[in-house]
Amino acid sequence: METRDAHVLELRGETFGTINNQISCEEAFQNKTLRPILKMQNDLFIQVFINYAIKQKNVFFSLTPEKKMLYVENVLQRDIKFRNALKGMIIALFTLEEYSEYIQTSSNLNKRMMNLLVERLKSQMQLIEQ
């Protein structure tokens, strides 16, 4: 019987970027774990953000393009409940080994995680606006 970890790794697919001895452990974790998860969960993140924006009285949809970019950044920095929900969607796809690695430097990895997610959402603004 295959383990949960094997199924999770199979679902996620390949690593992004290079992983060698010259990069930090956090950068290796980002390329090996975070990027594949963010790519896999991309459509879900977009829908979750759209739902969030609608529940916030649709303010987002009336903003200028520049203000929309700032809105995405501010929401993921200031709305702790929403941020934690997104973080949970990522952490849920860690293997047990990755989770053990994550808790060693969770603060720095959380920053990387949210920065990657902010950039991902901002780069797909056209999908969010539809």
Low-confidence stretches: none
Overall shape: elongated
Radius of gyration: 16 Å
In total, how many beta strands? 0
Mean pLDDT: 91
* Sheet having the most strands: none
Helix content: over 70%
- The N- to C-terminal Cα distance equals 43 Å
Short summary of the structure?
With 130 residues, this protein is mainly alpha-helical. It is built from 8 helices and no strands.
Explain how this protein is built.
There is one protein chain. This protein is 75% helix and 0% strand. The chain is an all-alpha fold and 130 residues long. The termini are far apart. The model has no long low-confidence stretch (mean pLDDT 91).
Features:
mainly alpha, single chain, 8 helices, 130 residues
Secondary-structure topology with pairs:
Blueprint: H1 4-12, H2 25-40, H3 42-55, H4 65-78, H5 80-91, H6 96-104, H7 106-123, H8 125-129
Helix pairs in contact: 2-7, 4-7
